[in-house]
Every structure is written in C-alpha cells, then in structure tokens.
Please model this.
Amino acid sequence: MSVARPLPHDAAALHVAGQARYVDDIPTPTGTLHLAFGLSDVAHARITAMDLTAVRQAAGVVAVLTCDDLPGANDVSPSVHDEPLLAQGEVFYLGQPLFLVVATSHLAARKAARLGRISYDERPAILSIDQAIAADSRFEEGPRIYSKGEPERALKAADHRIEGQIEIGGQEHFYLEGQAALALPQENDDMIVNCSTQHPTEIQHKVAEALNLPMNAVRVETRRMGGGFGGKESQGNALAVATAVAARLTGHACKMRYDRDDDMMITGKRHDFRIAYRAGFDDEGRIEGIEFTQWARCGWAQDLSLPVADRAMLHADNAYHLKDVRIVSHRLKTHTQSATAFRGFGGPQGMLGMERVIDHIAHELGRDPLNVRRVNYYRAAAADAGASGGSISAKKNDRAPQLTPYHMPVEDFILHEMTEALAERADYGARRHAVAEWNAHNRVLKKGIALTPVKFGISFTLTHLNQAGALVHVYQDGSVHMNHGGTEMGQGLFQKVAQVAAARFAVDPALVKITATDTAKVPNTSATAASSGSDLNGMAVKAACDTIRDRMAAFLAQEHQVEAADVVFADGEVRVGGAVYTFQEAAKRAYEGRVSLSATGFYKTPKVAWDRIRGVGRPFFYFAYGVAVSEVVLDRMTGENRILRCDILHDAGASLNQAIDIGQIEGGYVQGAGWLTTEELVWDDKGRLRTHAPSTYKIPAASDRPGIFNVALWDGENREETIYRSKAVGEPPFMHGISAFLALSDAVAACGAGYPDLQAPATAQSVLQAIRRVEGDG
Amino acid sequence: MTYFLPQKLDDALELIQDGSAKLVAGGTDFYPAMQKGQAMGRIVDLSRLGDMQGVTKDGDGWRIGGATTWTELIAAPLPPAFDGLKQAACTIGSVQIQNAATLAGNLCNASPAADGVPALLTLDASVELASVRGRRILPLGEFITGVRQTRIAADEILSAILVPALPDHAVGRFEKLGSRRYLVISITMVAAVIGVGPDGLINFARLAVGACSAVAKRQPALEAALIGQRPQTVEVTPDDLTGLSPITDMRGDAEFRLIAAARQSTRAIQNRERS
Amino acid sequence: MTKINMTVNGRAVSAEAEDRTLLVEFLRSGLNLTGTHVGCDTSQCGACLVHVNGEAVKSCTMLAAEAEGAEVTTIEGMANADGSLSTIQAAFQEHHGLQCGFCTPGMVMSAAALLKDNPKPSEAEVRDYLEGNICRCTGYHNIVKAIMAASGQLDAIAAE
Model:
C-alpha cells in the first residue's frame, strides 16, 4: 500500500459537521472561571500606582491578580526570561498585560479589565526602526555579520553598481481561532492544560515554572488549533500560565480566550524589516559583489527574534550564488509588541531583499529580470553529486556545489529545470510580450508580470530542536493508536503521519487512530514549526511502527520457522511461510504470544551542524524549491491593483499527500501576497496599534485571489533520506507571494522611466507613491 | 439592559418618548461594540417595524422605509438613477450584513465613511423624523452635521428616506476605494447621477464625495461645469473638488485620498452606462 | 433574565438568558452547539454564520432575544436526516475545502444560503457571496471548488 494518497484532512468530516472541538468548545466543569488581562495604555512608563478597586468591585469578579500575587516565576518568555506575565513596575509596550481579572464569565472579566486606574510616569518610547537606530536600542551586543569572499573589493571592481533600500511591513497572523487556554486543577497540585499551541512542551515548561512544579506535574494537551502560522509557537504561553496560576489560586478550572482586538494588541506579529543593499554586477546582471544590511524591529522582548533574524540572513541569497558577500543584521529593541514567529520565520524578509536587488539590477540594465535570475542561479546539482569518491578532475571541479554566504554547499539545486518548466507551462515569454503590448496601448491600466524562485532551508537553525518522538500502540484487535510530538493547525500533519503509520503496517489509514498531542505521551517535543512537522514526526512514527512490526515479524517467523525478513506485511495482511493472516489476526496472535505491541520512536535530523555566531556550517538538512509567476494590473491614477493570474510549480519532494501539499501552496501564496499588498499594520506616534481589527487590517478575501490560479507539484524525490523522500511544505510556498509584489513593481515601472522603488506592503497608496516616483524620474 | 422589539412604529415611538432609550436598527455596528462597553440601559430594536419597511412610490418620488435592509433595497425595482445607491448597498459589509443592516441605521450612525450617504445625496434625499410629537422632514445634507452627529432628537425615529422624482435618463454610479475589494470601510468613495442628452452631452449631473470630510459633500461647482461636456472626455482633478478636508489615518493619507477621489469621480462620470 | 424560545435545528428550545446575550453565545453556552465559532467578535469573519428563518445571519450581530420565535439552523443541523453528510458538507471534505477548519462551519452555512437562492452560481458569484467569510488557510481556492462541486458544476472550475 503506497503511502502517497490524496486523502482528505483527518478531521474533515468533523469540521464540516461542526463537531471538531477547539479549546473554547471543550465542555468545562461547573464553576469554571474566565480570565482577561488589563492592558497598558502607554508604550513605555514606570507604573506609579495601580488602583484596581473598581475592577475588584465589578460584577462577577472573583479575583484580581498582579505580579505580586503569582506563586512562581513571573515569566512567559520562550528564550531569555525577559517577558513577565504581568508587568513588574515598568511597561514596555502599549497593550502589555498589567493585571489579571478572574471572573464568572468571559464578558464580566473583559468588562472589569477596562476599569483599572493606572498612574504612569511616562518615559520616551522607541517605536520605529529609525528611533531604535538613533538610540542604539538592540538585542545582542552588536550586529551579526556573515560574510564570504571580498565584497568590498568586488563591489569596487564591478562595471555597474546600484544601491537602495526597502521597507518591509510586518504581518498579523490572524489565525481564525484566537489564542485560548483552559487549565484544570488536579489532586496533589498537578495541572492539566488544554491549549491552542504549536508548542505543548514549552507550555508545560512555563506552567511548571509558574507553579513551582517539576514538569512531570503538568500535562498539556492540544488536539488542534484553528490556525497557527507561527503565532502560536510562543504567544500562547501567557494564556496558559495565566489560567494555570488562576486555577491554582482559586481551585477552579479557568479558561481564557483573547477577543480579536486583545489578540491583536497583545500578541507579537511578523517582524518588519528595513533592508539596505549595495550590489556590483556585470553587463548581464551577474552579481560580482553585494552587501546587505538588515534591520529587524523585534519589539520589547527577545522572544524568538534572534533565530528569526538569523534566518533572514540565511535567506539573503535566496537562489543566487553570491561569491563575495557580506550580510549585516541589527536586531532592534522597540516599545512595541514583541515580534515573533510567522510562517517563513525571517526567511521571507531576507528573500525579498534579494529579489528586490535582482529587480533593481534588471531595471538598471533594461533586461528581463528572469534572465538576470538565471545567470545568478546556483549551479545545478550534479547528477552524481554526493556520489562516492572518484578522481577530482578540473571538469569535476566545475560542477562542484557552490557555497552559500554561510559556506554550505548547495547540493540539491533544481531551480534551472523548474524555472524552465514553469516558464513554458505559464507561457512566460509570450505573456511578457503581451504585457508590454498592453502597456503600450493603455494609459491608465498598466500590467506587470514577474517570475520569482524560492529556495528555502529546511531544519530548525537551533540545531538541538531537530528531534522528535512518537508513541504507537497496536491493540489486540489490530487497531492502531498513534501519537507524536507534532501539533495539528490545519496543515494536515496528522493525516500525513497517519498515512506513514498505515503504510508501515500495510493497513488502511482508517485503522490508525489519530490522537491529541499530549506531553504525557511524548515528552520533550519541539514546536511544530520550521516546516519540520512531517519530516521529524513522520520519521519518529515510522521508527515506532517498525519496532512493533519487527517484533511481530520475529514472533510469527519463529512460529512458522522462517526468517523474520521473509514475513511480508502487504494489503492489510501478514504473510508468513504459507500462511496469510489479516493484520488483526496477526496482532491477536502476537498479543497472545506475549509480544509487546507498544513502542516509542525517535528521530534526529542528520548532517546539521553550524555556528550561528560566525555564520558558518550546515544549518539545513536540505532545501525546498519552487517558482511562481504572477501577473497583475494596476490603475495608475489610484494605485488600486489586482492579481490576474498566478502559476506555481513547487517542490514537495515525493509528496506524502498531494492534495494536502497543494492546499498548503495555494494558501501560502495567498497569505504571502496578502503580506506584501493589502495587509498593513499601522501604529500611531504613541505606539498604539491602529489596525487591531479585521475592519482595518485586511487579509485577503475570496475575491482577492487571482482569477486564474494554477498550482502543480514538481515531480522529484528529495535527494536526502527524509520520510519517503518527501519535502517539507509548510513555509516555502508563502514566499511565492513575492512574485505578486514584483509584478506590481513591473507594472509601476511601465508608468515612467525611473525605478519604482516599491515599498512593502504595496497598498494602493504605496503603489501610487511609486508611480509618482517613476513619473517624476521619467 | 432591557431589550424591546416592537412591531409597530407608534409602539416604538411611545417606548422612546422619554428620550432615554438607545435605538438599534440592524445592530451590525452596535451589538459587536456593545460586548466591550458598559451596561446599555434600554434598547429599542427597530428591525421588526413592519410599517417602516420596504420601498414604495410616493407621488412622483419614492419612499424608503427606515427599517428597510440593504438586501431589500437591492431587490427593489427602481429607476436607473438609483443604480449608484444599489451599488453602494452591494459593497456594505457582506451579504449577511446587508441582510441585517438598515438604511436608517447607516444614516443615524453618521460615520464619515457611511457608504449610503453620498449616493443618497446625489438623489437629493430627505429624511422623515417621527416622534409622538409628530413628523418633520429634513434634507439629508442638513440631517448629518458631523462625525457621528445628526439632528435627530432623543425621542425621534428616522422613519423614512424620501427621494424626489428624477429624470428617466439619469443613471447612478458608485465608486469605492478600499484596501481590499470586500468588507472594507471606505478610504474614499464617490457617487454620481449623470444624464446624457441625445447629443451625447451631459445635461444632468450630481456628484458627491464621501470619506474625505466629516460629512459627505455634494460638488455643485463640478456639477455645473459638467453640463455640456462629453462624459468620455471628462478628467476630474483634485482642484475640481471643493469643501473636502480629508484626514490622514491608518487607511490612507490626506493627499492620497484627494487624488483617489478625483480619479473615482472621473470613473463615475465616464462609466455612466447601467451596469 | 428572560426566557427565550426558538426552534433550533428543528427542535423547540427554551432557555433563560440576559437581554444582552448574543445569539452566538446563546447557541454555544446555552445550547452547547459549539460548531458555531467566534472568530473576530466584530461581524467581519463569518465563522459564526447561522440561518435565521432561512436567511444567513452573523450570530454575533444579533441578540438571542431578536431571534425569539425564529427557526434557527446551525452547522449541527446541516447533515442529512440519517446523519450522513449533506452534499455541501461532503463536497468540502472531498475537495479539501478546509485546513484548520475553524471557518468551515460558517463557510458551509454561507454556501447553503447561496445555493438555496442560486443553485447554479458562477464561480464569480460564489466568490462574491463569500465576501463575508474569512479563511486564513486555504487561499479560498478549494472552498470555491467545493461549492461549485456541490452545485454540480465541478467541470466549470476544472476547465481553468
């Protein structure tokens, strides 16, 4: 039974019937209390007094907690203990939780939370990238710098040079299910927490710290999230800890869910970036030397900002061989929400910086950007690359893998073929002509087209996170119970991994019970993040299944006096000697033969090792690739624009489930295009987020998606030994949205002679400003 | 909070005669906001007032009941001059919001970005205000006085919108610029009613701009200048628009709004055929 | 507190609720019908969509008291009488019209309201109609495909 089948999402039948439970849908014990945070009204201040009398007196309020009431650690940081659950004397952003209201209903808690009277001694707030640069407000002692070759010399020697800068806005996750947690107090001070989180182990860890308990006294369960996108990697900590603390203090179950505006005001978002560049190149656009300076606005606490900024540096090359390169990264500390993980984790920002340079070079030389891309691509993977030995001839040397700016050989580069295939499939050449033709005859409506590649590194850059565990039971009736450390947020991980388990036992996937992620079943898990879910957990489940299968095979082989290797699991049967058992019969025999039918599995990613300070080594097991072509039209008088068509060819290796993978690609593209077009976060000069509701913050709607939208999978296996040679697919497609942004740049360029210098997001207003620039320059 | 759902206008007027009640008609803005706020006291919901619903011919003109939903308005058989109003209705929230939200609610809310106002201004609409004291009629332009401010008294209900007769050849048009196609609160919007004579020249012109001032504004100077022009050749510039004071906020800055409004005006005039 | 009576999914129900109780709260907390979701709290996202007297309504924009005496249908009432998935539900499952599933009940309710009035909508009409339902996962492609399939028009979209 082949593993790869386009089966529906594991819970699809429950979702369409309204039966799938999210945290807020779990039936709660009588007397369950509800929580809400009182929030800071200012961005930076010392708290001089907190008068919570009115809060305590409000209807339905059971308790009001401040930092002085907490039984254990006042910290919800996933990294360096710099993020108090409740402000301790000082506030660092507008929206920071100051006190916690415990009440008999969600509404009562929320209403009471607004009644706090807080006196502040306000301090100057550092809000923008410029202010942070001026104040040298940063994380780490200074910038991180990765380099290779001699960029300054190469820049000086180049025939052509450009320099420029792009501002890249952040992005709100807008998971449809807001953050939520439910804590259920147990005997002996133990705590069970149900939480909408990508990282149950981290929740367990932070709750244990907050309650002064060892981790074994806290159990965290997550059946599913209503969307995560990175926003539930660390941002659920505050709710989980708050509910656990309140449950400990009151003895009642406690639940907390953020209303949408609280969610947007409190939680972190994608980092906004400024990227400046200087590039030197030849007549064909081949880059000789290049330097990037990246400034990331990290917000008030460190959270995951260092690895995010690292990943931006690691994707500053995108798909291009940069011989002489220097990348400088500043991680700026500001009095705003603490920016956090978001699909791509810094990769999209780094990659957009590079694609912007290509676009700029092409404009400078008057060339088709696609040709500039091609001449800069990494060398193709040699057919025998990685094969054993052989003499090193000069010819062989020409085909040796080229090095990334962090000195990792790119051994699996397939974008030459993929670009060729997509350009043909999407008719890129003819359409580029048609666009030029259109623009020559239309004064107001201008079209643009762009083909952009994605090369995305797969693995956690914090190397020790690249591990996973699984627990599998086979019951005596042949049914299979599967558990692993990965969490389900809609990406189809559970279904894909269940298909792996079913394939190992050669049974129908319907026989495999998928169960909630549970820290009591599989300990010490990593976040479901970095696209690694199926790579890691698929392998761990495979190992567990194989252990059980091998035990069954050994037992049956002994019974039938054959070699274990001759026992065959196929088509729901187990064949041994001349006998054929159903899997159920085989399981029952094994049980009666006193064979353990339960096993754990463990996996750690091979080959990864690097030095993140020096920027040298192999942070990634492999790369996932893709190419996209977008065509857009804009109104040069207003800047309004639409995506007309998008074609994508994406590399998911030997896909475990093509339907699920294509769904990830479609959704990723639309989300990526949203980031760079309509989704604009605006803070006012007091540090208040003004776009804190869907009425002002615009994620794509059904009609924003391109009129024509063709998505296909590249037919090829992962050259590395991943689970059934598949590739990770969660994050890479997000960056196909860059093609929409650069198609807009192309359309703006048709309005005049200058370079558009388009800034992101390309809202109608931002597009109009770019049009003015090219008209002015023309 | 106490909630009343009267079925007749007279009953509703009695309920509110002491001026202490909060009126709701559709509640699509009110109920979501209510969840965060203080106790609301007495709520009188006007959405079930049968005698305040529907669109009827009223002499030469038209009478639109205050509790008429946008969905009902879209479905009503009305002359082409109302096309702009219908287009505006189609862009309000989403279908489910149009099912619940009413014209009276949109007008009494008096948001500078209220989608219905510019189109109703181009129809020269008036509002009828009812109370136990009687009824009075105010031109729409006088009814809305500022951001979230109107001339309605605490004991009054906006019972109907009155639209006088319009020439048969006049066609309405609505243009809205938002940062996304749907579910947007407008950055700017323009409504126009344009009539073109047999000679191909404009002989009837009304145009209003919304979301560029506290209250949407008719453009009398531009309207006068349009008479005798060929619609396809009209190009409106920001200088042609008067009385506007757009603000800079998270949805767009002031200069951008003026440019966009001029462009939308051009579109509304040029593209006047019934869609 | 007032006693509120209505018919939900064909069953007469009656429960005490404060006047300010929203319909969505009444359904979720009062009747334990948790398939109707709260996504944005502000009438934008459509996850709370239900049918009231046959019309699609966002249950976060309506008081429970306003639905007094009304016929309300929620996602839990959409399956066929024998408990099998309805055509629309089955199409969402088969055509992968969901990922995280949080918007799905609202999408199914919206699709049902559309197909009742317009059994053979064009793809553009489907997209227009879905303007009040936000999905953050799928990019909408498979949702539209599922609705086209449910209306027996899969060919129309497959031809793209």
User: Anything to note?
Assistant: Chain C is about 30% helix and 15% strand. The helical segments of chain C are 23-30, 87-94, 104-117, 123-129, 141-150, 154-158. The mean pLDDT of chain C is 93. The two ends of chain C are 55 Å apart (CA to CA).
